[in-house]
Each structure stands twice: as structure tokens, then as C-alpha cells.
Amino acid sequence: MKRAKKKSRISSKSNHRGPVLALVIMAIIALSYAVYRKIDLMRSADREKSIRLILTTLDSYYQSTASKKSDTWWLETAPLPGAESFTLLEARKNKIETMIRESERISDLTKVLSSRFRSVGLGLMVNGEPRQLNKVGSVPTSPTNRIDICIIPKDGPTIHGSAMPYWDPRRELLMIPAINCPDPILKEILFHELGHASRHNALDGNPYYPPTSEAYAAEEVEMHELGGQILDFESKGLYLKRIREVVVRAKNLRSFEKAIGQLNSKDLAYIDALFGCTDLAIPSFQLSSQALLQVGFAWCDEHHLGPKEKIKIYQWFGQNIASVPLN
Ligand SMILES: [Zn+2]
């Protein structure tokens, strides 16, 4: 009986405790949610602020330098077939072949790509269609070590409506606009696209990745990092030195957006000058996009963050910063 009474006391106590406990838990959940929402709202406000800062830096840099920057094309229109045109393009082909061959010692990947693509077949975009450039005879089919490059003259249409180079996996052609740009930039562009070419072609049978996929972004990260290594090699270490200086400025900043926001107009001017792009437009855009991503990647390395975070940065960049597609 005593025992039963005790039991009933306990059970009546726990009957009260149940609703109280539930209320406390609900209150904690509500409070946590409120705090979480607040942090989340702060974070998204912070993110917005960082994006605005980056866009403002780009706007003010390009507005202040607009009078200086322009591009010239080494080919305004597709030349008429003839010996003179052939000589012009043959010289360009030889230059690109030499560039590919001489870059093999820059990195492991340039070594792979240099041996993969030993010879260049140069074509021209004529009235929106790529044309092979051959004196006579047939084009060899699917040799393992050849890359076909299609030069787009100024009057040639570009698929993206921009003058950016790209690898066309359907035609298996590396499309390059005939814009005059300094050799280090051409080399960076070339190897970035050769990287894509080596992964997506009928011979190697690798699939095409949708642009929104993680695999696509992962490959872009790899090629942009390769681009950074090439620019660093070409500038004898000055390029990545400057990028690291930006990351040092962002030492106590906990998000990649804030770190990238540390890249300022002086950095952009320095990098343009480093590669002879002070007076050029498109090569300078190429460099600034590369530099923004590069700061993000270097920030990841500094914080021992792996490829996942770099992929996130690339995707974030495409959604928030890049006004032209990165190819
Ligand atoms: Zn790419």
C-alpha cells in the first residue's frame, strides 16, 4: 500500500513533468530557431554585402580604366583562300604548337596535355561554319595527338555572344577568337581548353557534363587552377605571390566571399600590368575573373578546405559575379 502510494506520487509528478518538459523543449526549439534565423539572416546579409563589394570593385576598376581598355583583332574577317592567308595561319599554327610543346614543364597536367596534343590543325570560322585549313588532300581522322583549333575572326559569330574561347565537344573543336592578347594569356586560355578537350572527345569517350553539375564545376576548378599555375610560371612567381598577399589581408575573415572581397582595384591593376593587359579589355576581364576565383581557392588552401569548397566557390562565382560564361 505504502509502496503503491509512492508509486502513485511518482506517477502524478511525472504527469506534471511531461507537459512542462514539452513546453521547455518547445521554448528551446523556438529560441534556437529564432537565433538560427537571425544568424542565417545576418549571414545572407553579409553575403549580399560581400557580393556588392566585389561588383563595386570590378565596376569602379573598369569604369576608371575604360578609356584605356580596348581590343584589337589580328583577323578582322576570314581571309580569302590563297597562299597569303595560308602563310598567315600557318605561322599562327606553328606558334601555338611551339607554345604547347614548350609548356610541358610547367605542371604535371601541362606535361600530360603537351604529350597528348603534339600537333595542331588550324581552321577558320567562315560565315558561322568552321572550315579546315588544308592545302590539299584529306584530313587525317582521329589521330590521338592532334587538336583542331578554329579561329574566329572579328566578324564571325560566337555561340555565346561573347568573345570567350571554348571547347566545342560536339564538333571537337577548340574555338579561339582572333583577339590580340599577350602570350601568357593565350597560353592560359589554350591549356584551360586543352584540359577540357582531353576529357570530352569521341576518342576518350568521356561524357559531357551539364553546366549545373558538380562534375562540371570540379573540372572548371581544375582548369582554373591550371591557369593560375601557368600565369604564375609566366610571371616568375609574382602572380600567386600577389594572390597570397590578398589572402593574408583576409586572414581573420571566415567566409570565402569576404576573402575575395579583399581583392581591390590596385591588385587588378597590378595583375593587368604584370601580363601587359593594362590597355586591353577582354584579356583583362579574363585575368580579373581568374584572380577572383584564385583568391577563393588560395583562401581554401590556407584554411585546409578541400575541393568541395572550391566547387562551391566556382558555382557561387557563376551565379553572382560572372557576367559572361566562363568556359
Ligand atoms: Zn573551362
Q: What's this entry about, in short?
A:
By secondary structure, this protein is of the alpha/beta class. It has helices at residues 2-64, 83-102, 108-116, 183-199, 214-234, 238-249, 256-260, 265-274, 282-302, 307-320; strands at residues 119-126, 129-132, 146-152, 166-168, 173-177.
How would you characterize this protein structure?
With 327 residues, the chain is α/β, with parallel strands linked by helices. It folds into 2 domains: 132 residues, no CATH class; 99 residues, no CATH class. The protein is built from 10 helices and 5 strands, in the order H-H-H-E-E-E-E-E-H-H-H-H-H-H-H. A 5-stranded mixed β-sheet has the order 2-1-3-5-4. The N terminus is likely disordered. It binds zinc ion (ZN). Zinc ion binds next to helix 4 and helix 5.
Which overall shape is indicated by the principal axes computed on the Cα atoms? elongated
Percent of residues in helices comes to: 55-70%
| Cα separation of the termini | 83 Å
Poorly predicted regions: 1-14, 135-140
Nearest-angstrom radius of gyration?
Answer: 27 Å
The distinct bound ligands, ions and cofactors come out as: zinc ion
- SSE arrangement, N to C: HHHEEEEEHHHHHHH
State the total count of DSSP E strands.
5
Q: Structural class given helices, strands, pairing? A: alpha/beta
* Main sheet properties: 5 strands, mixed
Question: Count of helices?
Answer: 10
Q: State which percent range the strand residues make up.
A: 5-15%
Strand order in the largest sheet: 2-1-3-5-4
